[in-house]
Amino acid sequence: MADYATLGHYLPYLLGRRLRAVVWPADGGERAVALFLLGLMALYGAGFGFMLNHQNKAGLAEALPGILIGLNATWLVSTLLVDFFPTLRSVTRPLPELFPVSERQNVVTAFLLDLITLRRFMLGLGLLVAMLVAPRHAAIPGFSLLLLLGASVLSFNVRLLAALGRWRHPLLAANLLSLGLMAWWLSVPLAPYAQPLGVGMALLPWLVGAAQLHWLAPYFSARYLPATVAATTTPAGSTLARLPLEWKVYLRRAGAPLLYGLALKIIFLVVSGLYMTSNGKDLNPGLFFFAFLPLIGFSYVNNNLFAVVQNLVANELLRLGCTAHLLRLYARLVLPVVLVDCLVSVVLLVALFPASRLPQLWLLPLSVPPLLSLGLWGSLYLAKPAAEKINFANSRKNVSTAANLLTIAFALALFFVPLWWVRLPLAAVATVSAVWPLRQVLRNDGELRRKLWRGIGA
């Protein structure tokens, strides 16, 4: 049996099966959803192409750079982070060791199978439709498509290093350089050097991937791959093991969506700051408030905190009922998350935005007490059972829609109302409203206790 047999018998079958599983699933409901999403992205692509055909109209020419930055940043983030959060999508050998296929061919096969996902297929379809609708401006969606492919290669490169346990390999720096080049390119979409920079941005991940295929692919075998058991066990002296019990429970269930939300916040604020520095105006004021104020942690997790730490709260309700311990638990878990969120906003606003935006820093301390109050209301009176494994995909389903809408509506009013004599009473009313749930908890109110017990799904 040859050691380096071709993939002629395996690759078409594996790629065809993967493509059918993504585009035409066996389940009728999943198939309908996949086709609906693909059709929707095709319509978005047609709309994007129509906009490019009419970009010389008044108003659209000025807004086009911001639209391109927003779209490309969204595609870059969705392409990269979906492979790392809520959990790392590991790279594994697609063919067993006994198959007569070399390690390099296994890496190539793993990359091609990894590339075929519904999300990438949707984004690629939308960009291809835009190129067909606007052939004279095909370079704009064409470079976005190159960004999508380059980000996919970059993601695979980093995850291959993780699978081989080579976090200190020099090629990791080359992958980080590729990411920096992508961020630079999408922040200057209409600069004179945008096209050569886009070519470099598109080619560098492939060159790094080729280097990894040459140097590291021979180690892509069971002999060199780290054991999966060692990767899943937590050492006794790790940081998580030294944390208090409530933080262990909280981070194991909600750490992934919190990290994902923080990453989105940092990326959006960095891109917005670079855009405002170079163009003198906001990238997207309607989304800036959501990234600037400490909203992400509440909208994903902390508006339903007691359901997230269900076992701790159920134990407290069984033993003593509603007591001050529940309030201390809420403060110990939510306050550090909010403070980290505010600290990131302060650092990025001071470092990247002009001095004219510094007065907005006063909104951060003004927004914290009301958001804590609204989060307590949602956690007590609008609690709903949380999924056993909370991730970014289901995080919004684990929080009451009414609690999220109320929190976002308050943040909108606080950010966009320019009058401080309106902002201060609004924040004061939202903060003082916490007196009622605090009073009911300290009284060990029976109705609240039963409502919370049912709400967290105990």
TrEMBL record:
Domain of life: Bacteria
Keywords tagged on the record: Membrane, Transmembrane, Transmembrane helix
Keyword Translocase on entry: no
The keyword Transmembrane belongs to this UniProt entry's keyword annotation: yes
Sequence intervals crossing the membrane: 32-52, 64-88, 145-165, 171-190, 197-217, 257-275, 287-309, 329-355, 361-382, 402-420
Designated name of the protein: ABC transporter permease
Species, as recorded: Hymenobacter ginsengisoli
